[in-house]
């Protein structure tokens, strides 16, 4: 009674060997569909575009503000030294309409630092979007593989049932011939029902995994999926950790958040510097300031506003400094998290590989053992219980081999995700123009040049 060749072929095809073009395409399709249709990814993309528009909005702060004003209403002026006897102390209907333009000349670098703040916020949103794409890709890989794993386990369980039914048939014949007691037939029938319960449980897990796949990918029907092979991996743990810390989008997002807090602090300092602006305007009116008749006005002025005292200034500075410290500590925590993900992925991969190799040997040994037990049972030198226990051990070792190979494969892809290389591995441009146009705001850049770099993001 040898291991079912069909099931062995399924296990080999799904979990052994390098990735084939067809297999790669299928998993790539799953990931690509999720990244282009999942609402959570679309929400992150909208957040990036929002941040880009808010940055573009800052261009307007370097342009003059032009306002139209007007007023009409009764006016009473008592100024005997400045008004004629006929005009003085008489209520008149004053009316005026005009236009005024105001252009900031110096604002303590508030506009520049606000631009750098929003540019850093755009960087933060972009890296958050990219990290969400990597996370979504890994979730799809996991869901995809869960479907495959449960499909394979179900096939093995059905083969296990077929083997038990064959044993039950043989036992039934021997019971009818008086060679075995009825208790043996009842025992094997009980084992058959136990296997059927197991198949029902596995089928339920398969449906759960398909439901999870549908949730992520959005397809109404889950196709028959095949498992991916192993991608190329770093040569050692140190290389993996170094690559993860250097490339992980979550780390870059945390650094962008540090930049946001730094520029917010610089923006706040502008409030304590002199504000200089240029104003110009013109108006036409009548019966203004108590004097009868029409009047045309025009003016140009330089305005100075310097806030010399404002309560709570030191507390405000302290609060912004603590926000910057918070961002720095969060970045340190993120570095630790990424390192931990890389280390656990590496450890999980190595452990799963070892277990898979051991389980493969167990499958081979248990298969030989079952063959021997079957022969001895047929010769009446081995009990039915020994044969059933052997079948159960063979089934268990086959499941352990499937789980271990699936675990190794998933941890290999998790290593890619730790390095933020998962979408790139599937040839999916989840970055769009975002990554190439990362603003990376700093004081060495001209503010309006930073603003211009957001234009392609909103047009993509």
- Indicate the mean pLDDT: 88
User: How large is the share of residues in beta strands?
Assistant: 5-15%
Inertia-based shape = elongated
- CATH top level is Mainly Alpha
Enumerate the spans where pLDDT stays under 50 for 5 or more consecutive residues. 1-25, 431-437
What's the CATH architecture?
A: Up-down Bundle
CATH superfamily: Outer membrane efflux proteins (OEP)
Brief synopsis:
With 460 residues, the protein is of the alpha+beta class. The protein is built from twelve helices and four strands. The protein has one domain: Up-down Bundle (Outer membrane efflux proteins (OEP)).
Architecture blueprint of SSEs:
Blueprint: H1 5-15, H2 21-37, H3 39-56, E1 65-77, E2 90-106, H4 110-176, H5 182-217, H6 237-247, H7 249-269, E3 275-286, E4 294-305, H8 313-378, H9 384-418, H10 422-425, H11 447-452, H12 455-459
Antiparallel strand pairs: 1-2, 2-3, 3-4
Helix pairs in contact: 1-4, 2-4, 3-4, 4-5, 4-7, 4-9, 6-8, 7-8, 8-9
Structure description:
This protein has about 450 residues and is of the alpha+beta class. The chain has a single domain (about 5-65, about 110-275, about 310-460), classed as Up-down Bundle (Outer membrane efflux proteins (OEP)), CATH 1.20.1600. About 65% of the residues lie in helices and about 10% in strands. It is built from twelve helices and four strands; from the N terminus they run αααββααααββααααα. The chain has helices spanning about 5-15, 20-35, 40-55, 110-175, 180-215, 235-245, 250-270, 315-380, 385-420, 420-425, 445-450, 455-460; strands at about 65-75, 90-105, 275-285, 295-305. Strands 1-2-3-4 form a four-stranded antiparallel sheet, with no helix packed on it. A hairpin with a 7-residue loop joins strand 3 (about 275-285) and strand 4. Helix 4 (about 110-175) runs antiparallel to helix 9 and helix 8 (about 315-380) packs antiparallel against helix 9. The radius of gyration is 37 Å and the shape is elongated. The relative contact order is 0.17. The model is unreliable at about 1-25 and about 430-435 (pLDDT under 50).
């Amino acid at each position: 009674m040898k291991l079912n060749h069909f099931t062995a072929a399924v296990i080999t095809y799904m979990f052994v060997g390098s990735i084939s073009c067809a297999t790669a395409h299928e998993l790539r399709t799953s990931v690509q569909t999720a990244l282009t249709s999942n609402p959570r990814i679309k929400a992150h993309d909208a957040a990036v575009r929002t941040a880009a528009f808010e940055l573009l909005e800052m261009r307007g702060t370097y342009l003059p503000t032009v306002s139209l004003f007007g007023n009409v209403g009764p006016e009473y002026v008592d100024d005997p030294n400045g008004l004629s006897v006929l005009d003085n102390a008489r209520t008149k209907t004053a009316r005026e309409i005009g236009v005024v333009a105001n252009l900031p000349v110096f604002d303590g670098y508030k506009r520049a630092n606000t631009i750098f703040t929003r540019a850093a916020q755009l960087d933060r949103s972009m890296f958050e979007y990219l990290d969400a794409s990597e996370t979504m890709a890994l979730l799809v890989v996991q869901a995809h593989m869960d479907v495959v794993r449960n499909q394979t386990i179900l096939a093995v369980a059905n083969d296990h049932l077929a083997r038990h039914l064959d044993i039950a048939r043989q036992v039934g014949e021997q019971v009818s011939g008086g060679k075995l007691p009825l208790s043996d037939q009842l025992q094997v029938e009980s084992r058959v029902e136990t296997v059927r319960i197991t198949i029902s449980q596995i089928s339920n897990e398969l449906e759960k995994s398909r439901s999870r796949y549908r949730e992520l990918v959005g397809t109404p029907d889950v196709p028959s999926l095949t498992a991916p092979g192993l991608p190329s991996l770093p040569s050692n743990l140190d290389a993996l950790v170094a690559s993860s810390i250097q490339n992980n989008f979550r780390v870059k997002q945390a650094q962008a958040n540090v930049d946001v807090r730094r520029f917010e602090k610089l923006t706040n300092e502008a409030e304590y510097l002199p504000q200089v602006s240029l104003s110009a305007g013109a108006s036409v009116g009548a019966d203004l300031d108590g004097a009868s008749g029409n009047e045309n006005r025009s003016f140009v002025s330089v305005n100075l506003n310097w806030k010399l005292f404002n309560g709570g200034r030191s507390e405000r500075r302290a609060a912004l400094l603590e926000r910057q410290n918070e961002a720095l500590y969060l970045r340190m925590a993120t570095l630790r998290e990424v390192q931990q993900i890389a280390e656990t992925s590496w450890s999980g991969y190595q452990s799963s590989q070892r277990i898979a190799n051991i389980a493969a040997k167990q499958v081979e040994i248990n298969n030989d053992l079952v063959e021997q037990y079957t022969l001895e049972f047929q010769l009446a030198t081995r009990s039915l219980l020994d044969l059933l226990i052997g079948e159960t051990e063979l089934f268990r070792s086959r499941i352990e081999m499937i789980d271990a190979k699936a675990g190794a494969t998933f941890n290999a892809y998790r290593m890619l995700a730790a390095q933020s290389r998962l979408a790139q591995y599937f040839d999916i441009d989840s970055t769009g123009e975002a990554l190439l146009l990362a603003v990376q705001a700093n004081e060495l850049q001209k503010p309006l040049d930073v603003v211009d770099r957001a234009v392609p993001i909103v047009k993509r």
